[in-house]
Amino acid sequence: MFKKYVYGSPVETGAVVIDLFPEADKPQMFDETENGSLEFIMTETDIVYGLGEANRGINKRGYIYSSFCTDDPNHTEEKRSLYGAHNFIIIDGFDRIGVFVDTSSRVTFDIGYTDSNVLTITTDSSDFALYIITGDSLYDIVRQFRGLIGRSYIAPKWAFGFQQSRWSYKTADEVREVVRNYRKHGIPLDAVCLDIDYMERYKDFTVDETAFPNFKEFVAEMRCEGIRLVPIIDAAVKIEDGYDVYVEGIHDNHFCKTAEGGDFVAGVWPGKTHLPDFLNSNTRKWFGDKYKTLLDCGIEGFWNDMNEPAIFYSDKGLKAALDAAAEANGKELDINSFFELRDKLMGLSNSIEDYSSFYHNMDGKVMRHDTVHNLYGFNMTRAAYEAFMRHEPDKRILLFSRSSYIGMHRYGGIWTGDNQSWWSHLLLNIKMMPSLNMCGFLYAGADIGGFGSNCTRDLLLRWIAFGIFTPLMRNHSALGTRAQECYNFGDTEDFKNIISIRYSMLPYIYSEYMKAALADKMMFRPLSFDYPDDNFAATVEDQLMFGDGLMLAPVYTQNAVGRYVYLPEDMLYIKFTTPTQRRYALLPKGNHYIDVAVNEVPLFMRKNKLLPLCRPTDRTDNIDESRFEIIAYVDKPCEYVLYSDDGYTTDYDRPEHFDSISVKEDNGKLVAFSRKTIVKVSLFN
Ligand code: GLC
Question: Rounded to whole angstroms, how far apart are CA atoms 644 and 506?
Fold first, then answer.
């Protein structure tokens, strides 16, 4: 059951799709403090889940989080904000409630940070809507919340293949070389992402004709290799005379304004830019239609970036900092003046002063940016998605964004921004996945191997061994870091094997994704969601329930040769040594140590579950969904629902997409049945 409470007169954010009549009273479980914060008293054992793309654990208790989309590539543990703003939590204890704070500006969740037993929610604006959701279980609360916010974005099937990216592919030949290497080593690959270098001087919707000549032909050439190219689109538009997007934007008033009515100037990759006013429906339509230039070249996927929006500097901020530096020049600086100057220079990017100094026209309503900040990236992605619906209504186009707010999950997926090649960021990736699913973000993943810093072979292998389960599976790294493509780390056989496991599981992963999207389910769940009566399971932060009946226990520490794993019940342990070779063990409920070499993938299966596997291939186009091998851990008849469709049309709900693979009793024996060909059954009981 959900209830809506309204404080003041909130801005319509677009997060919720069900129009609820607000309650007359305020919610009982919260005390309102003098400054308007909402306080909830937690018991010693309450757990708090949620917040989507946020730092720290699956249990959010014990820290403070600031929901304000932030471009910060240093996700160290003390950080309070990342790129997304996902204001949904579930308090699980004596009371079990879901809370969604729907507001376009900052929300601070102090979850036992100031006072370990107090949860305080503080909104920057006194205008917000609060939704309280109660249900039978944690999962039930999530399902209801997901119903409230609408169906998650559905990506094309090819986007579940492995994607290679790097900020530095400067020419078509470099991209060809990447593809050639992957194909040469037999490492599966479906897409290459094009970072800002494919553009002419970082101008959106242009292609550098010298570096990428005959772009349309190049896209087709790559398609023949089984590769889709996925270009980046940045939020900001370069100021350059004669550049059509800039000229039109000025002419038709599409850019955010200063208080004086001029177009706000932000320094981003192209140099000086203007920010399209994505909160305005005309601007959304105008900007969205620009993607057509690339769709017409055969492009089938995009990633939207720098849309918090990232502002390296504003004219005003830069001038103030340079003036201060000029003033200091030649003077003897005492230490305080030195730090003051340093802070001025270091604080130039993404400053709250800049965010408070430009304005949107929300279809007639003028709003200062900081009050609607969290909706910016959301609406950039909405602009693109709505344009795809206009131009290619029957085709799924891949779309994922860096910045997001709840509601954007209907229009695209996300990647979790500029992480680092750190073991701790592999663990953060693991912990974030269920929280993202709670908030509707199903098509999600981190930069595998880490964006910043230099990756090592073992980190990349371990990260891929987890990444094979994330819907977005993309290796991406920053300019200037060690080359991170899989073939750059010696013997490629290990990479080939682990990535091939993804491809052999792809029908299962895709089925689980589609079922989760169509029925508001979570692909990734904390153990407590599946084992609500197991108190120990609720403390496990490095294992996840995955899809229908699987449990993941990735290895995420350097030099590890295995790990401890907690089994909340008896399970079948499947260790993939190659896509077709596995070791099995039936392990009893409890704690176990498992050996896992860097080239192996551990997987656990619940009782009376089935896992269909197909033959590994090098690209999604070649997956044969007519023949399966089945791993079954069963002692009674059971069924697996396989979802399979063409993977690119949008007619998702047809009953013929759902197929059944089952184990039934036949003459006293358990036998597998399916309309598909079953080539082998590995049956355990
Ligand atoms: C941002 C993005 C990153 C990209 C870079 C250059 O830092 O988060 O993924 O590679 O910009 O475009």
Answer: 11
